[in-house]
Write a structure and sequence with these properties.
TIM Barrel, 7-stranded parallel beta sheet, binds zinc ion
Length: about 240
């Protein structure tokens, strides 16, 4: 590598680190089990200087906890689409959704999102089901919410091949800072698997509280693995 290329890649990494520090890609609102209204969440994120805000309300479980109807889901997407345009270029608002169900998903609506997060799909039959039945019908990026890294060792080949990103979620730091995780991170670091960062905020107080995940990436040489949502990523 020449000095010039080294500098170029270093500045690319530092730009990614800067962007990561202004990013929170896992936030809930009153559409599901969050306590703050969507507008209040967006206003707080702008006040904090966040540049990329991902709203990821729950879909598909119990009514008190999630968006459960298609009508509600359409409203959620429509309101977020409106806010996205209204607040450009002050802040990038990304439309996400967090799901634990894998059956009966409304793919027409899901394909209007910027990304989908699935939980408890790190391994075994649920990961196989996600990959064989769900992901082929999705044209949007797919990630694993608050991934338990100790379960990812056996799944690394699949995640890399399927371009499934994994989330460092600061509400569950033990899931990525586990004592047993070091060798798994070493394995993951050598692969083309991206990492997203999210606070899992359920009210305006925790929005942007992603510092621990950013530090973790820096400490472990993973900063260049940051997953970035983008306007062009729909297939
Ligand atoms: Zn969540």
């Amino acid at each position: 590598m020449t000095g010039g290329e080294g500098l170029a890649s270093t500045s690319k990494i530092s730009q990614q680190v800067k962007r990561a520090r202004q990013m929170d890609l896992h936030v809930h609102t009153t559409y599901s089990d969050g306590n703050s209204e969507l507008r209040a969440v967006v206003d707080k994120a702008i006040a904090l200087g966040i540049k990329d805000l991902g709203i990821t309300d729950h879909y598909g479980d119990l009514e008190w906890y999630s968006i459960t109807s298609i009508t509600q889901l359409d409203e959620y997407i429509a309101e977020l689409t409106g806010l996205k345009q209204l607040y450009q270029p002050k802040i990038n608002i990304w439309i996400g959704l967090e799901m634990s169900i894998l059956n009966g998903l409304p793919f027409l609506q899901l394909n209007k999102l910027d990304y989908a997060l699935f939980e408890d799909v790190e391994m075994g039959p649920r990961l196989s089901h996600l990959v064989s039945q769900v992901k082929p019908q999705l044209k949007i990026p797919v990630g694993i919410a608050h991934a338990q890294v100790i379960f990812l060792e056996k799944s690394a080949d699949i995640l890399e091949k399927e371009k499934i990103f994994i989330e460092l979620n600061t509400h569950y730091p033990d899931r990525y800072r586990s004592n047993w995780a070091r060798s798994i991170w070493q394995n993951l670091a050598s692969r083309d698997i991206r990492l997203s960062v999210g606070s899992d905020a359920h009210d305006t107080k925790r929005i942007g509280d992603t510092g621990d995940a950013i530090r973790f990436m820096e400490e472990n040489g993973l900063s260049q693995k940051l997953w970035l949502p983008s306007k062009q990523q729909q297939k």
